[in-house]
Design brief:
Order of helices and strands of chain B: HHHHHHHHHHHHHH
Oligomer: heterotrimer
Distance between the termini of chain B: 11 Å
Number of helices of chain B: 14
Chains: A mainly alpha (308), B mainly alpha (336), C alpha/beta (322)
Largest sheet of chain C: 8 strands, mixed
Radius of gyration of chain B: 24 Å
Shape of chain C: globular
Strand order of the largest sheet of chain C: 7-8-9-3-10-11-13-12
Shape of chain B: globular
Structural class of chain B: mainly alpha
Number of helices of chain C: 11
Number of strands of chain B: 0
Number of strands of chain C: 13
Largest interface: A-B, 42 and 43 residues
């Protein structure tokens, strides 16, 4: 007959507010950290970034120094290897480990600059295409469609064919090739946001066009762009390596990972490490970035959906 | 259905012109004297130079030059290779079947293995197989395929000696290029062991080229399948007493394939890009290798129109895929 | 012997200690009768029937003392043997017709599939039969509809197709799981009428799962009221509505909007259906029952025959009426 009566109310202990409402950054990190692969990817990339930043101090030798007496020495764990050259030397007697570390610098540089160089114009064009859907929009998109008609590597090859080989031209080519995806993404996101009430409210409040574009709408489109930027970063590394391998990108003796593979081709039979190791570093770096990108997407997307 | 095709064709035309504009601009952007660029020679004497300008129409305003260019294309004149003096079109036609054969083999490999792996991974979600497939596919599209090719050569050709290192067929054999497809031609010829030899030459490049499409297809099939298996009509199919195989393959896969098809089509672009790299590694005499060599040798007519041809190829394939997608998905067909 | 006999059916998702979604259910259905199963969402009505059809996947586990259909022990059947029965002798129509049909195949194909599978019909014979079935479910212009795709049909049409697919195998038992909930009110009446007519014509047993008591009153002969996975009352239709024995049945009837005309609030029971962590040791309704006694909280009442029905209550209502 007696229904359960709640105990007399005791004052609750002061609750840590930050536990109740984590800041957006903390929330994001918690979501991201749940994906173990993404965390491992992040850890590996931190290692690569560290090597890239501190290459001259981390590398045991000068990457371009040729040790004539130590041509094609195997890595330390094979017969004939030595601790002097942990990962062995290449056909000109240069320490492989140092070259790989230097190569990290190059790859990250190429990735970063090409992403920045295509992200900014890409966002601008996408914003313009979204805000002016009558004439400017379709023309921009047609141009992007034409650029996308060619596979990215071929377009990059074509651009490098005109500009000539080299590091800077590689970056330019890759930047141009990545442009259409940013434009498309931004435009799609912008068009989605333009219908929302907060945009109408901002317009009514008298926001001018630049403010509308950059302050009101753009921040809400960032999530897919961030994910795309991560994935472009990894394609940039792959494309730069491909161009290097084809002899059209970074030229020897600069130790870009792909370029190293091109000269290693002749040594498949004699010195497998000259072939395997540079490619392995490419694989691991790209894998790490892709894992991070996946984790980013999973961490950012649900939030996006919840916020909608 | 016809109106659907007509609409898609309509979109094709402006894109095609856009490409011609692009390739036209490409060549004009090359630094240096246009005559020297076009003729591949240095320091042409003034009289020849003026004649060449006249002949190549280089003294006309740019729009007129563009029209000239398109006009020539319409007549099938794609210029001559500076190295071989052969018509670009003729060279393309000769070399294209090799790339086609390779691409076809790669797609076959990627499609069959990818679909199977994706379906099984979806059916056994969370199992070791599932994680394995996901892991391998992630590695697949993270890896530089030129390196992958080298590794496979190192392992299978050099260490194990199972497959040859390069080329389409052993130099011993003299096969008449009736169709351009080595597999068919070797069957048609009466040389013993030629077919097997051609096949062995094809295997490794096909696997290398097909690796990235394989990874993408497996992933896409798995996620598509997982979504489809949750749908109500799967429950209805089971309530009808149909066998599990029928439920999965007839009812499930048919719908799961629809997004996979789009991905499949997009892979053509990847394939052509990959063909460039694969052909270089395996010395496979196709259009990819042709283009790279032309770039290295500054053979600009080949570069310009080779890129045009390849781009047209990609657009054509995307068009066909669009149509197939319409066929597969009745809802798209009946939309406006 | 009853057509369908269910004794002590338990369905759990998880291990043997997991909370049962269906808890000791007893049910019988005779050949040719219409039984309605009513209850709120989550009472276990659909799960019971899905268990019978073999549509419950791991981690769901089914245990029962008996689960017999037409003399066959359904629990002991292999997958292959069960598939001979399901879709043929027992068929089911689901709630949302718009998603129940495969969008990539024509209507005709999906009906013919059943005919091919269970009746061995092929080619023209199958198509002819499919056409007859479409006409039977009163689809206008049936000939052209055979080649239509599901997205070209309206909700009502799709449900008719689903019914055609279900009766294609000449079932002895048809289960309709909330067949009209997703449809317009005007269509609802038509579909219900169709179902009842088909049932009469073919002398099929019909199990109608619904939460709409008005439909039950009009169509069913017997009704089973479910609450929290248990059958709490099973009785004849007009009698159970006139003199409900179980307090929950009474509450259900009282909650019908028409019974609260003039009142300020709809009549409801306080509290909610027990969840995973607060399943009572005694009668499942005890936390909310307006007539609850002490022993109700500690013992589970069995489903016992009362004056007019079977009721799971120690202190059933309305027992004076003969």
């Amino acid at each position: 007959m007696t229904s359960p009566i709640p105990n007399s109310v005791t004052p609750a202990s002061p609750v840590d507010q930050s536990l109740l409402y984590p800041s957006p950054y903390k929330e994001f990190w918690q979501a991201f950290a749940r994906n173990k692969g993404a965390v491992m990817g992040l850890a590996f990339m931190c290692l690569v970034v560290f090597c890239a930043l501190f290459a001259p101090w981390v590398a045991p030798h000068d990457p371009s120094e040729q040790y004539r007496d130590f041509l094609l020495t195997p890595p330390v764990w094979l017969e004939g290897g030595s601790w002097q050259f942990i990962l062995g030397t290449d056909e000109l007697g240069r320490d492989l480990l140092s070259r790989l570390i230097q190569g990290a610098r190059l790859s990250l540089l190429i990735g970063l600059s090409s992403v920045v160089m295509s992200l900014i114009p890409g966002i601008l064009l996408g914003l313009l295409a979204g805000f002016f859907p009558q004439l400017l929009g379709p023309s921009i998109m047609r141009l992007m469609d034409v650029m996308l008609a060619l596979p990215s590597l071929l377009l990059a090859v074509a651009i490098v064919a005109i500009l000539g080989p080299g590091l800077i031209n590689t970056v330019i080519a890759i930047a141009i090739v990545s442009l259409p995806s940013y434009v498309r993404l931004t435009r799609a996101a912008v068009m989605g946001e333009l219908n929302r009430d907060y945009v109408t409210a901002a317009r009514l409040a008298g926001a001018g066009l630049p403010r509308l574009m950059f302050v009101t709408v753009l921040p809400n489109c960032m999530a897919p762009l961030i994910v795309q930027a991560t994935l472009s970063f990894s394609s940039a590394i792959l494309d730069a390596a491909a161009l290097g391998f084809l002899g059209l990108g970074v030229q020897p003796p600069t130790p870009e990972w792909g370029t190293m593979l091109a000269s290693a081709r002749d040594y498949i039979e004699r010195a497998w490490w000259v072939v395997s190791l540079p490619g392995l570093t490419i694989l691991l770096s790209v894998l790490a970035i892709n894992l991070m990108g996946d984790g980013l997407r999973d961490a950012l997307d649900p939030k996006l959906k919840n916020a909608a | 259905m016809l109106s659907f095709i007509a609409r898609r064709l309509g979109l094709l035309i402006p894109t095609f012109f856009g490409i011609t504009l692009l390739t036209f601009a490409l060549i004009r952007l090359i630094p240096g004297d246009p005559v020297e660029v076009m003729m591949g020679e240095r320091r042409v004497d003034p009289e020849m130079h003026a004649q060449a300008m006249e002949r190549l129409g280089l003294n006309k305003p740019l729009p007129a030059q563009y029209l000239d260019y398109v006009g020539k294309l319409a007549q099938g004149d794609l210029g001559e290779s500076l190295r071989t003096r052969e018509s670009v079109w003729h060279e393309f036609l000769t070399l294209f079947p090799a790339t086609l054969e390779l691409a076809f083999a790669a797609l076959l490999f990627a499609g069959i293995v990818g679909l199977l792996a994706g379906v099984i991974a979806a059916l056994k979600r969370g199992s070791l197989f599932d994680h394995g497939v996901m892991g391998i596919s992630l590695a697949g599209y993270s890896m530089p395929i030129f390196w992958w090719g080298l590794i496979l050569i190192m392992f299978f050709s050099v260490s194990l000696g199972w497959t040859p290192v390069s080329g389409r067929i052993d130099l011993l054999y003299d096969i008449e290029p009736k169709t351009g497809f080595m597999l068919i031609d070797t069957l048609l010829s009466d040389e013993e062991g030629a077919f097997k030899d051609a096949l062995m030459h094809l295997i490794l490049p096909a696997i290398v080229l097909g690796t990235i499409p394989l990874a993408v297809i497996a992933r896409m099939t798995r996620s598509s399948m997982l979504e489809v298996l949750r749908e109500d009509y799967i429950r209805t199919a089971r309530a009808k007493g149909l066998s599990p195989a029928r439920v999965v393959f007839v009812h499930g896969l048919r719908n799961a394939l629809i997004p996979v098809l789009t991905v499949f089509g997009l892979q053509v672009g990847t394939l052509l890009a990959g063909a460039v790299l694969t052909e270089t590694i395996f010395s496979w005499p196709g259009i990819g290798k042709w283009l790279i060599e032309a770039i290295g040798a500054r053979d600009y007519p080949v570069v310009q129109n080779g890129i045009l041809l390849i781009a047209c190829l990609v657009i054509l394939v995307n068009f066909v895929v669009d149509i197939l997608y319409g066929l597969a998905n009745p809802r798209i067909r009946h939309q406006r | 012997m009853s057509l369908l006999q269910i004794n002590n059916l338990n369905v759990r998702f998880g291990d043997a200690n997991a909370v049962p979604v269906v808890d000791g259910l007893d049910l019988t259905v005779e050949a040719g009768e219409i039984l309605a199963i009513v209850g709120e969402s989550g009472s276990g009505k659909s799960v019971t029937m899905m268990a019978l059809m073999g549509l419950i996947d791991a981690p769901g586990r089914i245990t029962a003392d008996a689960l017999t259909f037409d003399g066959t022990d359904m629990l002991k059947l292999s997958g292959r043997q069960r598939r001979k029965v399901v879709g043929k002798d027992i068929a089911m129509v689901f709630q949302d017709p718009m998603t129940a049909l495969n969008p990539s195949y024509t209507v005709g194909y999906q009906i013919e599939e059943v005919l091919r599978q269970h009746l061995g019909l092929k080619g023209k014979a199958a198509r002819q039969r499919a056409l007859e079935l479409l006409k039977k479910v009163e689809i206008p212009a049936a000939e052209s509809r055979l080649d239509a795709y599901p997205h070209q049909l309206s909700g009502g049409m799709s449900q008719r197709v689903a019914i055609a697919m279900a009766i294609a195998g000449e079932p002895k038992l048809l289960i309709a799981d909330e067949p009209t909930t997703a449809l317009d009110v005007t269509i609802q009446a038509q579909i219900m009428e169709l179902l009842v007519n088909l049932q009469k014509e073919r002398n099929m047993a019909l199990i109608l799962i619904t939460h709409d008591l008005a439909v039950v009153a009009e169509t069913a002969r017997r009704v089973c009221v479910m609450y929290a996975g248990q059958a709490v009352e099973v009785g004849q239709v007009p009698e159970l509505f006139d003199v409900p024995a179980h307090p929950y049945s009474e509450a259900l009837l009282a909650a019908i909007p028409e019974h609260s005309i003039g009142a300020e609030r709809l009549a409801t029971l306080p509290g909610i259906v027990p969840g995973r962590y607060d399943r009572p040791a005694g009668c499942l309704l005890s936390p909310r029952c307006p007539y609850v006694q002490d022993n109700c909280r500690h013992q589970r009442p069995p489903l016992d025959p009362q004056a007019n029905s079977l009721a799971r209550c120690f202190y059933p209502l309305n027992q004076e009426v003969a």
